[in-house]
Q: What sequence folds into this?
C-alpha cells in the first residue's frame, strides 16, 4: 500500500492518513490541534474543518 501523507494547511505538518479514510472525514492535527477535513484522497488534501462554535443562544 502507498503512503498517503496529508498536510495540515495550518501548520504544514504531514499526517499519515489511516487506511479506509474517506473524503469528508474529520481529522485532528496532532501538531497544532486544528480540526481538518479530508477534501481529497488523490492527491491527499486537507482543509480546515468548519468551525463548530458553541452558540447556545439564550
Ligand atoms: Zn496542524
A:
Amino acid at each position: 500500500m502507498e503512503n498517503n501523507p496529508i498536510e495540515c494547511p495550518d501548520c504544514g505538518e504531514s499526517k499519515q492518513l489511516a487506511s479506509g479514510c474517506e473524503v469528508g472525514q474529520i481529522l485532528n492535527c496532532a501538531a497544532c490541534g486544528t480540526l481538518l477535513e479530508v477534501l481529497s484522497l488523490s492527491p491527499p488534501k486537507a482543509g480546515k474543518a468548519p468551525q463548530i462554535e458553541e452558540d447556545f443562544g439564550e
Observations:
- The chain has no helices and five strands.
- Residues 8, 10-11, 13, 29, 31-32, 34 surround zinc ion (CB under 6 Å).
- Residues 7 and 13 are 6 Å apart (CA to CA).
- The chain has one domain: 5-48.
